[in-house]
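Worked Example 4.2. Consider the chain below.
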Amino acid sequence: MSTPAIFFDDAHGLLTPLDDLRPRVLIRTGGLTTLERHTRVLDLHVLAVFVSPVRHDLRALAAECLAADGHALPVDALPTGDAAVDPAAPVLAINSRCPLPWPLLRRLAVGTVLLEEDTGHIVAAMLPAAQAATLARTGDTSALAPGTFTTDTMPGPALMSRPWHVRHFRDAAISTDLSMLQIGHDNLSAVPACTVIGSRPLTIDPAAKVYPGTIFDCESGGIHIAAGAVIRPGCTLIGPVIIGAGSTVLDRAIIKANTAIGPHCKVAGEVGGSIFQGCANKAHDGHLGDSYIGQWANLGAGTTNSNLLNTYGEVIMKVTPSSSNERTGQQFMGCIIGDHVKLAICTRIMTGSIVHTGAMWAAGQAVTGTTPAFAWVTDATPPGSKFFRPDKFLDIARTVMARRKVEMGPAYAATLASMAVS
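Applying the procedure from the previous section yields the following structure tokens:
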């Protein structure tokens, strides 16, 4: 029997730009979003999603995003009417910053709150429904009656608190997702007119199209091609790799290990260790490594990033232009590209760069450090000196989305408008 569950946002951490335009539970942290992964692995019956207690403006946006992703779930409230939940029935509450379905989540006794050891932040809790909803609305145990719960701890890191943590959890998430996505598909040892190397699972949905000349290297990891995906002639895929529904891998592309392409993307060139949220374009040659690419982003021809310092040292990053530098714990760390970012042809992106939502980069100089949201950057306008006009930005965004037959919702438009700099 499925476990009743809710997801909540405790408002801790700083995950921008990953969560600018979606609830945290819908961040693609591997081949699947966090919501999809937990639901499949833990066999959950998800009752509701609760957004940040300090950002109630997210309620309408979260509802739109969840519906667009096929999840008809209430936001910030348990279901009512015929679907109402017994207030005393146990419900598993999971922090939306928890990307992996840790084994401990399966074994929580009713009345237990599981904490991340180093931070004391809640990873998950198994509580009566009324208590679980109270915890989810506040993001902590402050509103729970003393003596009604016990706490347990697990070693960290168990939660994402910075955008570069998507790189930390990436490999385990993709491995978990492959095991889920490949269920029900035939494991192929040969594909007509293609080359298959290695014995790890290769699964191709019958509704996908693979052209002759493709090389599938499954020596070190499995490969899954989802429904509607197209793999053009001459491509090389080196597992573990996940190609999402409706995405196209263009001619002669090299897709290297630990890459997950979300739905409806176009990808070319050399890509390794990267996650595409979905509906993004990297349709030309150029290298992309150990990076996260937001929805509706467009990388111009020849765009190339660095994912390793010349010193081979730990990459240092800062989340926002005004933030302090922080250690990432990563030697290989490329870039974080927010939603609706546009990068001109031959853009160079230095190691550890973050380009925030809606920025446009058309300068000859390399992208370095952290570029503010909606920045308009040319050789004559350095980062932070000029910004997109909100009305013009929204017009362009609607045009871009319409190309994939997606209509911008009112809450999404309102969020973009509120973020844009006048």
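The first strand starts at residue 3 and ends at 8. The radius of gyration is 21 Å. Compare this with Example 4.1 before moving on.
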